[in-house]
């Protein structure tokens, strides 16, 4: 079930941010080369817990992390490039979240709710001029018994 939801979420993300590709090494972004972090995303399921549901089904609250990364050209005189990349990543994160809410993560038959968005502070990897933005939210999905 979660595999189907994640696959559909990736399809939705690719439709929203068409110039992005999937990040190869999502669990340790720093292990990617600079070329592999330019305009990339990943979808990572984290913890899940059963929640109140209906007869003949079980209902799960699943935490999701979507990572967005991009690279930038560092300037010694100002950080305007960094700031603009962060703004662009934030805009993309909001557009992805809106799509996830409206499409029920591309799996409307199973996903019942998308909620609790939080966007973390950006992470800067100065050694290769990459910035990572993590967005977290919860999906509620139902599975028939």
Give an overview of the whole structure.
The protein has helices at residues 2-16, 80-103, and strands spanning 21-22, 40-51, 57-71, 111-119, 123-125, 130-144. It has 145 residues and is α+β, with helices and mostly antiparallel strands. It has a single domain (2-140), classed as STM4215-like, CATH 3.30.2000.30. Strands 1, 2, 3, 4, 5 and 6 form a 6-stranded mixed β-sheet that branches. A hairpin with a 4-residue loop joins strand 5 and strand 6. Helix 1 (2-16) crosses helix 2. The radius of gyration is 17 Å and the shape is elongated. The model has no long low-confidence stretch (mean pLDDT 89).
CATH class: Alpha Beta
First CA to last CA: what distance?
12 Å
Main β sheet profile: 6 strands, mixed
What CATH architecture do you see?
Answer: 2-Layer Sandwich
- Note the run of SSEs as H and E: HEEEHEEE
Oligomer: single chain
How much of the sequence lies in strands comes to 35-45%
Helix coverage percent: 25-40%
Low-pLDDT regions:
none
Which SSEs are present, and which pair or pack?
Layout: H1 2-16, E1 21-22, E2 40-51, E3 57-71, H2 80-103, E4 111-119, E5 123-125, E6 130-144
Parallel strand pairs: 1-2
Antiparallel strand pairs: 2-3, 3-6, 4-6, 5-6
List the defining traits of the structure above:
about 140 residues; alpha+beta; STM4215-like; six-stranded mixed sheet; 2 helices; 6 strands; elongated
Summarize this entry quickly:
The chain is of the alpha+beta class.
